[in-house]
Each structure stands twice: as structure tokens, then as C-alpha cells.
């Protein structure tokens, strides 16, 4: 059950409407449409000599939410103007929705605000257009990925060298993983920050549960004091390198065949592999939990 909706303007002004207590805000909600999953646009094309069609692509369109509001109080004109100020036509607002299970939000452009002023019971219909079809959890998830200290000792027998080959007693590549439960119902991109505390090379980030691997092949090493930020969010995919106060984009170091990792519904095992010392990296992840509908 929906218990509360809110509208927050760019300036930070917030209108909170308690569904069960309209007297507090002076506004009652009669109806809301457009909160469920957005319809997908499926593109197909027919065969020249065969029955049926083949799939060209699938995309999810924009979201339209329509609110029917009722000014609830003695001074109807004042309450109507209050709605106008919090739903400014042409402005971008953040619409928040709180239910028994979720607390989510999304950004919308106010398309129209239409009151029926001469009706006995005045209503205001607010139409909102969301360019992003997904709802975001109001709490951004930040995960500290630790424990990359699993050196794998290896031995080769017999104990002598042949043809100038050195004996191998240990593998200096560190690797480990962390299980993260993603509660959303739609995959989300992540922002991964890797801080280097020593000399590191051959960096590989992966979501082993879904076979997604990003191999960062740089000509030189990463050194203490440097960091990289890997952003895998759609429309914002990039790799940023920071060193000595300077920032540069190094997306080109991503090896061919790499797949930008995402968080998928359920358990995700995020793994890091690199050549370097046990305590030479510090990794954190940040992501939004996305929902198709409420």
C-alpha cells in the first residue's frame, strides 16, 4: 500500500502528501497512474519469403505519471497555488513514493498542471514525464569490497631446474570475491573506486556470477597514491584515472572482449584480480537499486 508521495524541486522545496491524512499537507490524492512497469517497444521486421518476423531490438520507453490531486482545506485558491509552486510546468522535480515495502524516487519533467476551477469539487491533474523508466531506491548502496588477500601457494616437482627454468613456489596474483545481494528487479550499473596503496598491474574486475569481466590493460603500472573510478552506468560508461591531483579519462585501456559489469537481481559475486602485494588495493562500490515498477 502507498502511504506517502512527495515532490521535491531543484531548490529543495518539498511537498509531502500523506495519503491517509490530507489535512496535514492540504492536498489529497484521488488517483495515480503510471507507477507500474513501462511498456517495451519491440521492433521487428518481416522476412522476404518466410512467415513471421525477426527481432531487431527492444527498448523501454519513457514513463508518464498522472496525479489527480484535490485541494483539501478552507482556502482552495491558496492550496491550488501551493500545488502550482511544487509542480512548476516545464521544471524538473523528484517524485518520491513510499510504500509498505519500498521507498523510491525518480526525476520527472512537469508536462502539465490542469485544474477544473469551476467544478464543485476542484481537482488538479498533474502530468509528469520521466526520461528514465526505472525507479531508484532512495538509499544509494555503498559496499566496501575487502579481503583481496588470497595468495594461492603452488609447487612444482621435482626440486630441480631444467633448461634454466626457475622453480615456482608461489603465485603472486591476488584474487578474491565478495557476495553482494542486489534487491532490485532490474540490472544496475555500478561505480567502482579502486585506490592503489602499492605498485599494481594486470587489474581484472568481474562479476563471476554472470560471467562479466573487465580487464584493464595499461602499458605501465599503477602506483601508490593513484586511483581509478570505473563507471558502468548506461550513458555514463567511463574509466577515470587520478594521480598527483590530475584527472584523465583512460577508457581506452579496457581490453577487447571485456564486458561492463552490472548488478543483477539476486546474489552477485564481485571479484578482483591483480598482480601486486596483498594490501596494495582498496576497493569500494556504489550503485542504485532499480525497480521496474511499484
Q: Could you walk me through the main structural features you see in this protein, from its secondary elements to its overall organization?
A:
The chain is mainly beta and 294 residues long. It contains 2 helices and 24 strands. The chain has helices at residues 22-25, 76-86, and strands spanning 2-8, 14-18, 27-33, 40-46, 53-60, 63-71, 92-99, 103-115, 124-130, 135-137, 141-145, 152-153, 170-171, 173-182, 188-196, 201-207, 212-216, 227-231, 238-243, 246-249, 262-263, 266-275, 281-287, 290-291. Strands 1, 2, 3, 6, 7, 8, 9, 10 and 24 form a 9-stranded antiparallel sheet that branches. β16 and β17 form a beta hairpin. The longest helix is centred in the N-terminal third of the chain and has 11 residues, at 76-86. Mean pLDDT is 87; it is low at 147-162 and 164-172.
**Uncertain spans:** 147-162, 164-172
Q: Let me know the largest β-sheet.
A: 9 strands, antiparallel
Strand proportion, as a percent range, falls in over 45%
SSE pattern: EEHEEEEHEEEEEEEEEEEEEEEEEE
DSSP strand count:
24
Q: Based on CA inertia axes, which overall geometry fits?
A: elongated
Distance between the termini: 10 Å
Radius of gyration (CA) equals 26 Å
The helical percent reads under 10%
Q: What structural class do helix, strand and pairing data support?
A: mainly beta
- Specify the number of helices: 2
Q: Quote the average pLDDT.
A: 87
Topology:
Blueprint: E1 2-8, E2 14-18, H1 22-25, E3 27-33, E4 40-46, E5 53-60, E6 63-71, H2 76-86, E7 92-99, E8 103-115, E9 124-130, E10 135-137, E11 141-145, E12 152-153, E13 170-171, E14 173-182, E15 188-196, E16 201-207, E17 212-216, E18 227-231, E19 238-243, E20 246-249, E21 262-263, E22 266-275, E23 281-287, E24 290-291
Antiparallel strand pairs: 1-2, 1-7, 3-6, 4-5, 6-9, 7-8, 8-9, 8-10, 10-24, 11-23, 12-13, 14-22, 15-18, 15-21, 15-23, 16-17, 16-22, 18-19, 19-20
Amino acid at each position: 500500500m502507498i502511504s506517502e508521495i512527495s515532490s521535491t524541486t531543484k531548490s529543495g522545496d518539498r511537498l509531502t502528501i500523506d495519503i491517509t491524512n490530507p489535512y496535514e499537507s492540504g492536498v489529497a490524492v484521488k488517483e495515480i497512474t503510471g507507477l507500474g512497469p513501462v511498456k517495451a517497444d519491440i521492433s521487428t521486421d518481416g522476412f522476404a519469403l518466410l512467415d513471421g518476423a525477426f527481432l531487431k531490438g527492444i527498448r523501454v520507453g519513457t514513463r508518464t505519471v498522472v496525479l489527480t490531486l484535490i485541494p483539501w482545506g478552507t482556502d482552495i485558491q491558496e492550496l491550488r497555488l501551493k500545488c502550482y509552486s511544487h509542480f512548476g510546468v516545464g521544471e524538473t522535480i523528484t517524485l518520491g513514493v513510499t510504500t509498505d515495502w519500498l521507498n523510491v524516487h525518480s526525476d520527472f519533467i512537469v508536462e502539465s498542471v490542469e485544474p477544473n476551477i469551476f467544478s464543485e469539487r476542484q481537482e488538479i491533474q498533474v502530468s509528469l514525464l520521466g526520461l528514465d523508466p526505472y525507479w531508484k531506491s532512495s538509499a544509494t548502496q555503498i559496499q566496501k569490497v575487502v579481503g583481496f588477500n588470497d595468495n594461492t601457494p603452488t609447487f612444482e616437482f621435482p626440486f630441480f631446474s631444467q633448461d634454466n627454468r626457475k622453480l615456482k613456489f608461489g603465485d603472486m596474483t591476488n584474487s578474491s570475491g565478495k557476495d553482494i545481494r542486489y534487491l532490485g528487479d532490474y540490472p544496475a550499473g555500478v561505480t567502482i573506486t579502486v585506490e592503489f596503496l602499492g605498485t599494481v598491474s594486470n587489474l581484472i574486475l568481474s562479476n563471476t556470477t554472470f560471467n562479466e569481466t573487465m580487464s584493464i590493460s595499461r602499458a605501465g603500472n599503477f602506483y601508490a597514491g593513484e586511483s581509478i573510478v570505473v563507471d558502468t552506468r548506461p550513458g555514463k560508461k567511463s574509466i577515470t584515472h587520478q594521480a598527483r591531483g590530475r584527472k584523465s579519462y583512460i577508457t581506452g585501456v579496457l581490453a577487447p572482449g571485456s564486458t561492463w559489469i552490472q548488478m543483477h537481481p539476486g546474489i552477485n559475486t564481485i571479484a578482483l584480480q591483480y598482480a601486486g602485494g596483498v594490501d596494495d588495493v582498496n576497493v569500494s562500490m556504489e550503485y542504485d537499486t532499480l525497480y521496474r515498477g511499484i
